[in-house]
Structures are given as structure tokens and as C-alpha cells.
Amino acid sequence: MAHHRCTVNFLVLFLTITAQFTISVSQIETYIVHMDPEALPKPFSSPQSYYSSLLMSISDVANSEASEPIYTYTNAIHGFSVRLSPSELGRIKRARGYLFSIKDSQLQLLTTHSSDFLGLNSMSGAWPASDFGRDVIIGVVDSGIWPESKSFDDEGMNDIPRRWKGGCFGGANFSTSFCNRKLIGVRFFNKGVKAANPKSSVKFMNSARDILGHGTHVSSTAAGNFVHGVSYFGYASGTARGMAPRSRLAIYKVVSGKHEGLYYSDVVAAIDSAISDGVDILSLSIASSGALYEDPVSIATFSATSKGVLVSQGAGNSGPSLNTIRSGAPWVLVAGASTTDREFTGAIILGDGVFITGSSFYTLNSIPAHLPIIYTHACGGQKQHKAIGKIVLCHVDRDQLEDSALVLAEGFEGTGVAAAVIILNQSDLPDDEIGFPAIFVRSANGNVILDYINSTQEPTATLMFLETGHGRKPAPKLAPYSSRGPSQSYPLILKPDVIAPGDSILASWQEETPVSPIITGNIISSFNVESGTSMAAPHVAGVAALLKGAHPDWSPAAIRSAMMTTADVLDNLLNPIQEWGYNQAATPLGIGAGHINPNKALDPGLIYDADRDDYVNFLCALNLTDRHMRAITRSPYSCSNPSIHLNYPSFIAFFSGNGTKTVEFQRTLTNVGSKKSSYLVNLENVQGFKVSVVPEKLVFRHKHQKQGYTLKIEGPRLKQGTVLHGFITWVEIGGHHVVRSPIVVASLMQDTTR
Fold first, then answer.
1. Minimal CA–CA distance to 215: which of 228, 202, 224?
2. Which of 48, 441, 466, 569 has the fewest CB atoms below 10 angstroms from its CB?
3. Which one has a higher pLDDT value, 296 or 401?
4. Model's pTM, two decimal places?
5. Which of 116, 142, 210, 295 is catalytic?
């Protein structure tokens, strides 16, 4: 907004134009009014005195509420809140220093925010059914923990379960007194990394203390206790809590630092100890690779699963290309990453008063008001010399952001070129944290800004940051970096299994590593926002703990099945879940069975169960050598009943080459719902293929009864790179259970490009 000349008659003007009429109560609403303190008239000794005088001058006779502010703000924002009629609001918009106003609205205090997005609440569903995951033990194999974090307080926790066999091992800067009824076990493993770096001058932290922050973030996401009043420099404010706030945590540190590396030997030792200690759930934000019999982590997790431990692992961050999931062990629950409906925003107030919002995740709010704004087309282009001290509107591809927009914005604080950047032509607006003042806008809003620049002799704008919104639509979306299937280790099992919140997740952090690389320096916080499938895996682990708490007798396969067959495949607009950045529906190669829904998973009706013998029979059908079989099974095994038909809640078939082909799958469903129930099959066919199921009706006469069926896919061979999909759904007759599984038909994925 352009500056106006201050005149002696400033307040008289408002008194002159005051309306004298009656207003109905329904017309008066509360507004939060943002003001620019630098633009206030000089005669006033303080912003507060100006606000009071201003409100007295613009208030209608019939509205006494407008004469005094409800609150005045000096720290969170500059401005005030007040009850205004429409005419009063119109007059206040013309006042000196006015920036913009927002109508006050009802809101709820949220976790930052993924548990709420998943529907978890204290009144019904998975939280009360499991008593918030009470006494389930989650092991986290990662970079350790920052034990001072309030997320690991044991308030509300009862005594440690007697079945726990682990210990609390102290060390450098880590006293055993940090362990409590929440943080019940702590170990660190660095012998492997030390052996691999015998000449290293690095002093290894010989304790479980987290010097990276990653492990602390993951642990609190899975099972952090309730922490009220947290935020990330004003973003994502609310109550932080993990998926299973009353579950126990056992920490296994395997990452010693940023540059020392992560070694299989340390990871396997950690998993070995976790099994011995008695964890129920294991969260791995680690991407292993190799064939099932060559990957030490796959082998170690086979043992964990055989002992009844559910293992959750991140899919990896190599998307959006296909065939980028490196680890896809059939006994591990592999999680891809999704967005949520929360967004971090910034505001652009043009000099003509037009208000535009965009995506921004800049952690300061110190840009001067009413800066000149110019258009340079390409960020970092030939007009840099014209951008000094100005706001620059420009185009940039997301993968060019660091190289081009940063060049412009290095001038913040006067060391380079532009003061701030507005970046347009984004189909999806990123929530990534950036180290310079920038706001991302879509093309339509970018065109509004450009029209204003072109039609105004001296265009100006004011940028505001540190805003958080909820209810973004559509959501969720498949995150672009989330690795896609088929799995490189074993493509005949569809991976990932599910997707879960992984983008812009707020959780605890260690307080020595900077969290925000802003141009003016690094800043520290006890909470941090991170993105990746590393964040999705602990969400799944925490939800698994809730299901284990509610159903202690369920196997890892039963818990996985419940999550998969009840997963959501539609977003909050009731359309198929989309890929971020692409105007197209995601396929099961990206989202697996869909987005986890904890409350639905609590009562799935039917499950696809599997035990150690089922996995052994499956491995036998792969014609592995005896050496490989013994390495994986770690005990005498029998291949008297080999079967390629692992009882899995998803289907994938490859149709490559010439001619036609038929593929059959055999599955068995176990009734965990009503004592007596019947289900009819519903098929969403794969385009160009014939999909059939025998029988089409399943009748269960008692709980835990098993019924089998055969699914057959017939059709032509496909061109390389083709991916088609459908669903098989078992619908309970006269009941509420819907048991859905994805079906993927594809060619062999030799070319991994999109």
C-alpha cells in the first residue's frame, strides 16, 4: 500500500466521514487488523495510542465495541483485534499504516498436526481403544535421542512392563537418569563405523545422544508424549504428540554423525538387541538394498518378524521415478510419504490493497513494508542489477530454486541483490523450508501481481510470513520424493504397502544442530519440521502400536493387513489421491494400498494373515540355495510345501513380451469381525484385462474362520513402462466392513524414468 501524506486534519477526516446509522448485531464481526508501525503518524507516542484514537474516530454511534481494541499486539504481530461493522471496516482500510485484516474464525488446538489429520482423537477410535498405545514398546533404530526433550517425559505413564528385558546404557553426555517410564531403553552401536574408519580423527559420541536430530524427530513422531504450546517459530503451533503417546520407547543409535557413515554391522547389532530386549514394533528410517538373501537388514528383520515384531521401514526418497524402492522385503511394512492438509503460508499485500496468499516457509518476519516490486521473468536472470533492495517476481522450476532464486535473495540484509522473491508458475506449492524470504504463488495469482506491476508507475508490496493454515484441498497427495515401486529387491510383491504423513512434519529436535539455514545465520529450536519417508515410517510404527495395544494377539501380518485393506484411496475432495506436482491420480506403485486410516484399521473385518512358515514356504518357491535359506531362516527349515502365493493384501503381475498371458493368485482371508458374516466381491477391473474371482462370495460362520479364493488376470502383453491398476474389494453383506486390495498390471520396469 502506498504511503499517504500525514496532515493535521488526519483524525478530523475520519470524524467527518463517520456514518450515523443503526447496525444489526449480526453485521458486527471480529477482525484481526495488521498494521505497519513504521507508517504510523508522528504525533502519537505509541502504536497503542494511535490504535485507540483511530478506533474512536471510525466507530459508528450504534457500535460501541469498535471504540476500544479487544487486544493490541506487539510481539506476535503488529496490530489489534476489534469488533467492526462493514462500514467501520471500510473506513479502517483507508487508515494510515493499515496493511490488511482477517476475520476471526473458530479453530481447534491441533498437534502439529498429523495425528489430527489421521482422525486420531480421545473420544473414539484407535486412541481410546488402545489407551493411546499404552505399554506397547516401540524400538527406533536411528541416530539416537535428545533425552531432555519434553516429548520424552513420562508424565501419565505407569510402571515399565515386566516383560521388558532391555537396559539403559549411559555414556558420553548421557546419564542413565535420563531413562524413565517413557524412555525405557537406550543403546548405541558404533563399533562398525569405527572399524570402517580406523584412521578417522573424529571423536565418536560414545552414547545414545543424538547430535543430528533425525532420531529424536523420528522417536517423538512415533510415540512422543503430549507437549503443549509448541511451534516452529510461529508455524504449526499447537500440541505436539506422537501417534502412540502412551507407548514406550527403546532407542538404538546406529548413526554417529553427518560424515561418519551408517554401516550394516551396527544396524544388524541394533536389531539383534531390539529382538532380545522385547520390542513390539521396530521403526527403521533406513534404506537398505540388495536381493532378499543379500541384504543384512532384510535378513535381520525376517528374524524380528518371526518373533512377532512388526517392522516399519521408509520407502526411500528417490521418487518420482518408478522402480526406486530398493528394499522391499515381504515381511516388512514399507511406507511411502504423503502430504497433509496443513500448509505454511505467506501473504502478499500489493500497493493497491489486493491481498494474495501463497506458500512460504521462511522463519523470520522482518521484511520492510511497502518495498518496490519488479518482474524479471527468470529468477537469477539478466535484471539482477535492477533488483537491489526490491521484491522480485520471477519464474523458477523447483529443482532450480537453490541455484537461481537464492542468487537474487542473497541481498537480504544488504549483502547482495533482492530483498525478497515471489516465485510463480508452480502447479503445487512447496512447503520446503528455505533460507531466504520467498513466497510461492500459482500462475493465476502471479498474473494478478504482474498486471499490477505493469499498470502501476511505482508498484509496491508488503510480504508477511509465519502463517499456518489447515484444510488444504486436495489432501493427501503423494510426495514427489517418495520412492516408487516395483521394489528392486523383489518386484513380485507390491511395494510400498501404504503411504503416511511424511511431508513437513513437526517433531522434537536436538538443541545443538541449527534447524533453519537463514541467510542471516543459523537458528536453534527444540522442535523442527522435516520431510521424507523417514517421517512416514514412524507414523506407521506408531499406528501399528495402537493396533497392537487394541489387539495384543494380532501378528505383524495381521496389523499390516488391517492398515492396508482399510487405507484411503480418495483425498478430502473424494477424488483419487493425486501425485504432488502432477495433475494425475497416483498409482499403487506410489501409494500402495492407500493412505493409512488408524480408526478404520482398528476394525478391518477380514485380514490376510501370515506367519513364519508362510514366509519360509514363499522363500522356498524362489529356489534359493540352501546357504541362502539357512542364512535367512536361522534355523532348520523345510521346503516340503513351497508356495509363490504369499498371503499378501495386494497383487502385482507383469505382462511383458508378446502374446497373451494368464496369472493366478491364491489368497486366504481370516474373519476378525462379527462371529457370522458374509462378503461379496466387487472388482474395479484393470483396463484391457479380464479379472475374475472364484468364489465370488465368502461365508464365515464363526470368528477366526478362514476362507480362500483365487484371483485370475488374463490379458495381452504390455509395452515397456505401462502401468495399469484396479482393486478387489470384499464388501460385507448387511455390515460396514469393506476390505480393499490394489491390483497392479505392468510391464517389467527396465526404464525407471517417468
1. 224
2. 48
3. 296
4. 0.79
5. 142
